[in-house]
Structure formats: structure tokens, C-alpha cells
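Moderator note: this is an archived Q&A kept for reference. The question asked for a predicted structure of one protein chain; the sequence and the answer are reproduced below.
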Amino acid sequence: MPASAGVRRRGAVRSEEARLAVLEATGRLFATQGYDHLTIEGIAAEAGVSKQTIYRWWSSKSAVVADALIEDLLLPDRPVVPDTGDIRADLIAWMQDLLDLVAQPGNDGLVRSLVAAACESTDIGIRLNDALGITATVSARIEAAVAAGQLPADLPVIEFVRALVGGFVLHSLERSEPAPEAAERLVRALLH
């Protein structure tokens, strides 16, 4: 029998106010401390809730961070692919912005955290993709470049975007300092 049919679930009722407090606290602490120094204890203290409350709703720090990102409470100035009319330069600039973001002190664990959260839950993975809009926005920019004749008409757009994003994710998982020309080399490799 579903809970809505009159059966009361066990445990404390999930409070939307407490959920938002946790996500907002995550956003504030992430902005001041970065991902690597973010802790469940710190989030709980900042939000005015117990650690138990957080763990009742989220399985890990990664899951809380993913939800805060989905709710647009993290990284308000996310890198976007520019449209200068030069697809190669635009993709290189965007990839460099992404590499610079994760190279900032305290942020090197962010991508690993999001990958972990997406691996824990298919729903989080889908919601992250939708919320970040990377597939949609980068695909739209690639499709515009195809229409403008800058890229081949038969370019498999979705696969190209996945390879581009995958290159960024793999770099982040390696935990290595990006070479100065890393963004250019990745884009050049995919465009040849």
C-alpha cells in the first residue's frame, strides 16, 4: 500500500526547509572552502541540522554536492561554450575554462565527486546532465558549427560531445596538472 494511501512512514518526516538549508549550506561552504575541505559535519553545522539528517537523505558528500549543483546552488558562473564564429577557438576556450575551474585550490575533487554521485545513482546522473546542460548546450554549439560549414555535415554530434566531455573527466580523474596546451590538444585530436 503506498504511503499516500494513509500508511505513515517510519522515522522523521523529511522537511523541505531542512533539505534546502543543507543544500544552501553546501553551496556557501563550497564557495568559501572548495570541495576538498567540505565535510558533512561542516554542512550540518552550517545548516543547523544533524549529520543523521543529512545521511538520511544523501548517501555521501558527493550526493549532497550533486544535488546542490542540480539546484543551481553551486558554481553559478559555470563555463559555457562561447560562440565567436570559430568553433575550434570556442571549444578550446571552454575546455580551458573547465580545466582552470578544477585546478583552483580545493576544487580538484569536484569532478571526481560528481562522477561518484552519478555512479551511485542513475537518477543523479540524469539530473546532473540535465541541470548542467552540457550535452544540450555543447551539442547545440556543435550543430551550429556544422550548419555554418565549420564542421563536417556527417559529424556524429552526440558522440563528439561525449568524447570531449569524457576527455575532460578522464583528465580530472588522473589528478594531474594540465599541460598548458591540454585544452588545445584535446580539441585538435577530436577535430582531426
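Archived answer notes: Confidence is low (pLDDT under 50) at residues 1-9.
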